[in-house]
Design goal:
The complex is a heterodimer of chains A (311) and B (531). Chain A has a four-stranded antiparallel β-sheet, with no helix packed on it. Chain A has two domains: 5-153; 161-311, Rieske Iron-sulfur Protein. Chain A has helices at 2-7, 34-61, 65-89, 107-126, 129-154, and strands at 96-99, 173-175, 191-196, 207-211, 231-235, 247-249, 254-256, 263-265, 271-274, 286-288, 294-296. Chain A is flat and about 105 Å long. Chain A is of the alpha+beta class. In chain B, 60% of the residues lie in helices and 7% in strands. Chain B is built from 19 helices and eleven strands. The longest helix of chain B has 33 residues, at 414-446. The chains are: A alpha+beta (311), B mainly alpha (531). The interface between A and B is large, with 84 and 110 residues. The structure holds protoporphyrin IX containing FE and FE2/S2 (inorganic) cluster (FES).
Chain lengths: 311, 531
């Protein structure tokens, strides 16, 4: 049935009797030896069948991802090659032609449409424009009502959540396992991730505790007491895009963010010296309590992490 | 069994049954007329028309493999202890999402294959879309009447990139989690509404209250794919309605389409292409490891991943983040963060230009006519050079996403690499544009001879030591470069043919062959003296 159908392809709008299918060169096949081609395609399909049967076997017996992938690739490869060859070599070779017609409607059709739309409908609607306004108002009121439940179910308003962290005056500095840190826990050149006691694992509490020296370090004017016994603490959240800062390079006294390679100068209040980070890492003022534990003198005095609109 | 009795004539029965069935349907739906037009739809025979098909079929693979993954994946951030079969992680704390992705990878038969096929299909889907879009752009296929389909296509690209990012974030591994954190900062950086949007998405300040994974899951498997399926449908419907474009050539005009009809030729071939796409993806899924999340570990907000690498289609955005200077603007107590420029403004501008490009071009070129014949890129140097420049720009951004790798590889300082990209990303596109423009003009100057074969010249030395350059006879399609006309074989002058015969004998070519060499009368033969 297919060949008869295709004859008409070329003759959109023409009388189908005009071309004798027996003499239409477009209906010839591309294959010189169709029977051989058929055998080849059959072979492809047989390969596919074999692969798919093997897949069943391996599904039951279990195998490796490589075997599964190879069988599936060869199986579908067989189907694909077979189908493409079938479509290309054993189907009328063409080329066929199709006429293009104007896509837009005729002017009469457009006018007729306008008559119906405006003449019958819009005019009738406009006559009662007050009703239309009421309808609009009703929908708008519903829309405003819907905002409430939608926004509430999404999440809270930011409020002051971004301004502060769990660190506050006297917070004990603890490790990620909750162990309090004593003044001689870190050697000079050592560093670790710490949290405020009671808030281990929190995102915005994460802080880098660095021992950059053995005596008090002042990173900038006004921070005279913040670095007792060479201990410095900076927010671990990069001020660029919020990745956790990973690396302390002791020789250069720099902190490196792995995401976009921003560098911060440890001895100068974590001033950014390289990369896209625009602001220093906030510094946590430290103190050493009477038992030798490291604690926070106060929370961070500025928001940690990347910038945001309500700064 | 009745069917056994009819065994001698099963074919006829089948055909009759089919006809009856078709009639039954048509009596109720009236499809015959439209169906015929549909089956008659012509597809031009040019390889570049296959790019869209590859995108379509990768998308189908995404849908099918994705459904398989949903049967096992658990969209939950609840923590649990890992008891699966991957030894290094045994006994560690993992989220249900990460746990189920590990289970898909190690404990579900064909699970890892399907998971890797899904990921590869995403990469190839977006690659095919990008190349398909280049084809449409550089040949001017987006011109009237196809502007709407261009817009549908760009929308599909944007949705595809978004859904790829969402899917990438689902396994809750260390790398994807870090990517998600960056996304929080991106949203946060949007002026005025940013912080609210970010809190609404994540259900609170980062990392949120555990809703982000189920929400991304809903978007990834339902909302975005549903919109995409609808848009793909619209894309194809428009294609049928407006018919294909075609390159110009013998018998091809603005008023027709020449090629293979939908039924049967194209349907068979395209079905074959679908199988081939599946085959390639299965091969990749089986052999090319992708996203081995068990190596990265569970995401914890304070843990660090060393190689933060997004999928390739996000690379240009990552590169833009890296080369952005460390600026931040603060005014009236409000801040426009650094992130805003490379990750909101840049893609915003880029995608908006993509979307309105057909209208920009129509306006600039004052060309509002319908076009169904495609242009070759050289035919429109203006557009081609802009497109090439844009490609170079995106490529530079993409390359900038591996500044650290490049610095290591070439053993130069990261500082140098960074500053190179900060300038080169803006300079190189202009150079590429200029070179492309020039190349288009040169190709145009070749005119109709471009790509044609030149006629061979044979250089011979005569017995006297004289050199002769003789044109070989014209073969069909050979053109004379100067006149542009197909050449008639010319008669030999007696002197030249005599010399040729002598030299041919000397070099052992038989006499009859050498007489076939037919040089043109005067300039075809040049004598070269040895000095
Ligand atoms: C535009 C279409 C889509 C794209 C670009 C895409 C992309 C991705 C990517 C890159 C992943 C990460 C895979 C990994 O773990 O390495 C993923 C995961 C996933 N996708 Fe899709 N996907 C698409 C559509 C779908 C659909 C339609 C479904 C379901 C009906 C689906 C279901 C899933 C599931 C359940 C996962 C998580 C399981 C896992 O990570 O192993 N995806 N997707
Ligand atoms: S997040 Fe630290 S450099 Fe980008």
């Amino acid at each position: 049935m297919s060949e008869q159908e295709v004859t008409s392809t070329d003759n959109v709008g023409k009388n189908e009797d005009e071309i004798d299918p027996a003499q239409d060169p477009r209906l010839e096949l591309l294959a010189k030896k169709p029977d051989q081609m058929e055998k080849l395609i059959a072979l492809c399909f047989v390969v596919a069948i074999v692969c798919f049967v093997a897949m069943m076997v391996f599904y039951v017996k279990g195998s490796s991802t490589q075997v599964e992938g190879a069988l599936m690739a060869v199986g579908f490869g067989g189907l694909g090659v077979g189908m493409v060859a079938w479509g290309k070599y054993l189907m009328p070779k063409g080329p066929f032609e199709e006429e293009r017609h104007l896509i837009g409607s005729t002017e009469e059709d457009q006018k007729a449409f306008a008559d119906v739309f405006i003449g019958r409908g819009t005019v009738a609607v406009k006559r009662r424009s007050f009703l239309g306004k009421l309808l609009g108002l009703a929908t708008a009121v519903f829309g405003i009502f819907a905002l409430g439940p939608i926004m509430d179910s999404l999440g809270p308003n930011p409020g002051k959540a971004l301004d502060s962290t769990a660190w506050k005056k006297g917070s004990k500095v603890v490790s990620e396992h909750g162990r309090a840190i004593k003044v001689d826990d870190l050697e000079v050149g050592g560093f670790m991730t710490v949290f405020p006691e009671g808030n281990v694992g929190s995102y915005d509490g994460q802080t880098l505790l660095i021992r950059a020296g053995s005596s008090d370090i002042v990173t900038m004017a006004g921070r005279e007491t913040w670095g007792p016994k060479g201990y410095l603490a900076y927010s671990k959240v990069c001020t660029h895009a919020g990745c956790p800062i990973s690396l302390y390079q002791q020789e250069t006294e720099q902190l490196l963010c792995p995401c976009h390679q921003s560098l911060f100068n440890v001895l100068q209040a974590a001033e950014p010296v390289f990369g896209p980070a625009p602001r220093p890492l906030p510094q946590l003022p430290l103190a050493i309590d009477k038992n030798g534990y490291i604690v926070a003198q106060a929370g961070y005095n500025e928001p940690i992490g990347p910038g945001y609109w309500n700064f | 069994m009745p069917s056994l009795l009819k065994k001698d004539k099963p074919k006829q029965t089948g055909a009759e049954k089919a006809t009856a069935g078709a009639k039954w349907l048509d009596d109720r739906l009236g499809l015959a007329k439209g169906g015929r037009v549909f089956f008659n739809k012509i597809f031009p025979d040019h390889w570049s028309f296959m790019l869209g098909e590859i995108a379509l079929y990768s998308f189908v693979v995404l849908l099918v493999t994705g459904v398989f993954l949903t049967l096992y994946y658990v969209p939950s951030a609840d923590m649990m202890t890992y008891h699966g079969s991957y030894a290094p992680l045994k006994g560690t704390q993992v989220s249900a999402a990460y746990n189920s992705t590990l289970a898909i990878s190690f404990n579900v038969r064909f699970g890892l294959l399907v998971r890797q096929m899904h990921h590869w299909a995403a990469d190839i889907f977006l690659g095919a879309i990008a190349v398909h879009m280049c084809r449409v752009f550089f040949t001017g296929a987006f011109r009237r009447p196809r502007e709407l389909n261009w817009i549908v296509g760009v929308t599909l690209l944007i949705l595809g990139i978004s859904n790829g990012f969402l899917g990438y974030s689902l396994p809750d591994d260390l790398i994807s989690g870090t990517g998600l954190r960056i996304m929080f900062s991106v949203v946060e950086s949007i002026p005025v509404v940013g912080t609210h949007l970010a809190f609404w998405l994540f259900g609170g300040n980062y990392p949120g209250n555990g809703v982000i994974i189920p929400r991304m899951y809903m978007l990834h498997v339902l909302l975005v794919p549903a919109i995409m399926v609808a848009l793909v449908g619209a894309h194809l419907a428009l294609l049928v309605k407006q018919k294909h474009t075609q390159f110009s050539g013998p018998g091809k005009t603005e008023k027709n389409v020449v090629g293979t009809p939908m039924w049967p030729g194209f349907m068979f071939k395209t079905q074959g292409y679908f199988f081939l796409v599946v085959a390639v993806l299965a091969g990749l899924g089986g052999w090319a490891q992708i996203n081995p999340i068990w190596q990265y570990g569970q995401y914890f907000p304070y843990k660090v991943s060393y190689a933060v690498q997004p999928d390739w289609y996000m690379g240009w955005l990552d590169g833009a983040l890296r080369i952005m200077p460390s600026w931040e603007f603060q005014n009236f107590g409000y801040m426009i963060p650094n992130m805003f420029f490379p990750s909101v403004l840049l893609p915003g501008i880029a995608f908006n230009i993509f979307i309105v490009w057909p209208f920009i071009e129509a306006k600039v070129r004052k060309d509002y006519k319908e076009h169904h014949l495609l242009e070759r890129p050289r035919d429109n140097p203006w557009r081609t050079s802009i497109g090439a420049g844009a490609l170079a720009f995106f490529f530079m951004l993409f390359a900038a996403s591996s500044t650290d790798v490049l610095a290591n590889y070439f053993n130069i300082s990261l500082n140098l690499v960074l500053w190179f990209f900060r300038f080169a990303t803006y300079i190189i596109p202009f150079i590429v544009s200029a070179v492309t423009y020039k190349m288009c003009l040169e190709l145009q100057a070749l005119g109709q001879y471009g790509g044609r074969r030149k006629r061979f010249n044979v250089v011979l030395r005569t017995a006297e030591g004289e050199y002769l350059s003789v044109k070989t006879p014209a073969r069909p399609g050979d053109l004379d470069i100067l006149s542009g006309e197909e050449e008639e074989p010319l008669e030999l002058t007696e002197q030249v043919s005599q010399k040729l015969r002598e030299s041919a004998e000397l070099i052992g070519v038989s006499g009859s062959e050498s007489t076939k060499v037919q040089p043109p009368a005067d300039e075809g033969v040049r004598t070269v003296e040895r000095d």
